[in-house]
């Protein structure tokens, strides 16, 4: 049955969006900023994994690890150099800085690695298994499994560890957290580190699914994942997960049943409808403003 | 407007001076450029940038009304430009037979582009302005993407039988001598280039006139009150949705006019030209120029368009430097210590940071 295979492919794509969206939503929840450079971290991760696999012929898990480490360091570095001095600045200034960082990464990649796209080696087995009448590639299953694993680890981390509760405290009230002895700057750095590390994992999955690596490869998945994060209610971790999966499923169904060219329009159209019905996303908290 | 400046005479003067300055700046710039062109001292690269600069200035002034004055982050300004551009191209193509002179046709196209963009602005504004903050921003982004998708799939042709329109696939056959106005992802091709710098400058002046008149009118004060404190504004009886809609529609109309001028400046134009990056670019001009400051917007737009061209000798590194300049400007203008130093240098004279 076609429907089942579309659904699973949708879940696969949605899992990638969900992992990227987690990075967006965590940073938004804690630093209250839209990190437009997040998509470009994905691009950097994909390049690092590409070179690790081809030039240095590292085994796949090691290549992923290298990408995660490089992206984590890069994420923390960007936060320290570009965003930290703007903690008190208006949010638009931070947004423009994030755009600047995004340009910087894209053009830096273009200079370092040229603008021509590179073919990502298929490191994950290309076989497929059949579920009933639908055949599903291993890659899609691995993507979905990775997403679920990431989600479980992250939920446990946020809810069970001391750092996790410090993060939740920061997202509610930074001033009060500081008074409670939480090192807010440290927590923000950790958030960026986790978000960027997740972006690296997403980058490998993305580059394995669509095997071409180029300097602007991160922008469209970045925008889609940002949409997914808003979809689920920005700042909410389960929201990003559900938003990502739904967005992937809607995109694949729109491509399969309606029109390939119009799939983007449909995805964004659904987003608008959802936000009109629930103005703070699916799982977003509604904050009442008191006069 | 006049009687207000007598009540708040000090504010009135300052505002008045600021307004006058931006008009004077535009006119001086226009004369300077015309002199350079006439004496042949302007390189071909710069002369090719003149019309696009005026287009982006107009779109940025419109966006500043939206972001700076009305306080709503709009990430879809390029979408409205695209509506204006393709509307303008179609109108110009349809009228090519009846209105042969370039200038009147250009003006009609710009007006049509502005009107259609305003209609789009109104329709989009109904859902958008129900939301707030970042949710509003993402919906404008979404509309920008949807508009781009629509033009990527629109096919419009004209022949002796009249207009033909189809969506997603080109289903119609044109009579011999017919002409495709829009061709899906390929966009508009073979457009007559009728835009010129003088009309562009006039459009900038009109945009400034419209925005200033709105800003310093009763509605403009209502818009700013709604921005500063929504609840307080509502409690004194300001209709929030209507005032915000006024700013949103005006902003869209200006972007549409700018788009029409832009579209008629090139023989080919693809829908991808007006993507998310273009919206962001216009937003950068606005924020760097200063929120609510139209003179600043004009200067920053001109500088930021010329900067990559001036850095052309650095080849590949120019966009990298552009990015660094962007980040450094944001870091410096938002650094309190540096800004207080800067202000104490011009004690009393400085108007405050960006």
Q: If you had to describe this structure to a student in words, what would you say it looks like?
A:
The complex is a heterodimer of chains A (291) and B (354). By secondary structure, chain A is mainly α. Chain A has a domain at 15-114 and 133-218. Chain A is 73% helix and 4% strand. Chain A has helices spanning 2-31, 38-54, 60-83, 91-113, 138-160, 162-172, 174-179, 184-209, 219-232, 237-258, 263-277; strands spanning 118-119, 128-131, 134-137, 212-213. In chain A, the strands form two sheets. A two-stranded antiparallel ribbon of chain A has the order 1-4. In chain A, a hairpin with a 2-residue loop joins β2 (128-131) and β3 (134-137). In chain A, α1 packs antiparallel against α10 (237-258) and α6 crosses α8. With 354 residues, chain B is mostly helical. Chain B has one domain (2-345): ABC transporter involved in vitamin B12 uptake, BtuC. Helices cover 69% and strands 5% of the residues of chain B. In chain B, α4 packs antiparallel against α5 (102-128) and α8 (218-228) crosses α10 (240-263). The longest helix of chain B has 30 residues, at 9-38. Chain B is globular and about 70 Å long. The two termini of chain B are 26 Å apart. The chains are: A mainly alpha (291), B mainly alpha (354).
